[in-house]
Amino acid sequence: MIRLFANANYDFIKWRRVAFSVTGAIMLIGLIFLMTRGVNYSIEFTGGTLMQVEAHKQVPMSDIRAALDQVGLNGAEIQTFGSDTSFVIRARLAHSAGTTEQTSTEAVVAAIGRALDQSIGVGQYTVGQTAAVGPKVGRELQGKAVMAILLSFVVTLIYLAVRFEWRFGLAAVVATAHDVVATIAFISVMHLEVSLIVVGAVLTVVGYSLNDTIIIFDRVRENLRKYRRQNLYEILNLSINETLPRSVLTHGTTIATTLSLLLLAGEVIRPFAWVMTFGIFTGTFSSVYIAAPVLLWIEKRWPGQDARGARTFGARAPTGATAPDATRPVPATSSPRAPQPAR
Amino acid sequence: MDKRIRGRLWVIGALIVVSIISLVPRNTKQRVIDPSTGRLKDTTVRRLPINLGLDLQGGIHLALEVDQSKGPVPDCADAIQRAERVVRTRIDEFGTTEPVVQIQGRCRLIVELAGEKDPNRAKGVIQRTAFLEFRITDMKGQFKDALPQIDAALRKAGIKSRNAAPSAVAQLFGGDTSKSKSKHDTTSDANAPGVLSSLLFQGQIPGEFLVPEEQWPLVDSLTQRPDVRAQIPRGIELRWGAQSESRSARSYRPLYAVEARPIITGEELTKALARRDPVTNQSIVTFQLSRRGARIFSQETGRHINDFMAIILDGRVQGEPPVIRNQIGANGQIELGSKPLQEASDLALVLRAGALPAPLTIIEERTIGPSLGADSIKDGVRAGVVGVVLVIVIMIGYYRMSGALAVAALTLYCLFTLAGLAAFGFTLTLPGMAGFVLSIGIAVDANVLIFERIREELVHGKSLRLAVDEGFLHAMNAIVDSNVSTVLTALILYAVGTGPVQGFAITLIIGIAASMVSAIFVVKTLFLMWLNRRPNMVTLSI
Question: What is the fold of B2-25+371-533?
Answer without folding.
Answer: Multidrug efflux transporter AcrB transmembrane fold (1.20.1640)
